[in-house]
Write a structure and sequence with these properties.
Order of helices and strands: HHHHHH
Low-confidence stretches: none
Number of domains: 2
Number of helices: 6
Strand content: under 5%
Mean pLDDT: 80
Structural class: mainly alpha
Largest sheet: none
Shape: elongated
Distance between the termini: 72 Å
Length: 115
């Protein structure tokens, strides 16, 4: 294992030459007895971008093109709102404020039986 400053120097040299790729990191880790995750962490800490290789880390190229499924988010929010409105309606029918009807460990009122 090399000293930390030498590893960072080698990574910076490969970055400046445009050879800092996942294959380079695999080879470097195998030759010098380093952990690959540690090399990626050093690259991130020193602001060295690992270049994209076809067939390797493809998720980086595609994750920016993907977006949030807006329809799924809206459906989840509507379902949550429906449940909340139902609970609020039940609380209003009971005559007590909603926060007093919530089933908590330290409830101030016990729910009446039969209602």
């Amino acid at each position: 294992m090399k000293p930390l400053w030498q590893v960072v120097r080698d990574l910076e040299f490969a970055y400046k030459k445009g050879r800092l790729t996942p294959t380079f990191l695999d080879y470097y880790a195998e030759q010098n007895g380093e952990r690959i995750s540690a090399l990626y962490a050093l690259c991130a800490k020193n602001f060295l971008d690992v270049e994209h290789e076809i067939g390797r880390n493809d998720h980086i190229a595609t994750e920016r093109s993907r977006g949030v499924d807006q329809r799924a988010v809206e459906q989840a929010l509507e379902a949550e709102a429906r449940v909340l409105h139902q609970e609020l309606r039940q609380a209003r029918d009971d005559g007590r404020p909603y926060y007093l009807r919530k089933p908590t460990k330290n409830a101030q009122f016990i729910k009446k039986a039969g209602s």
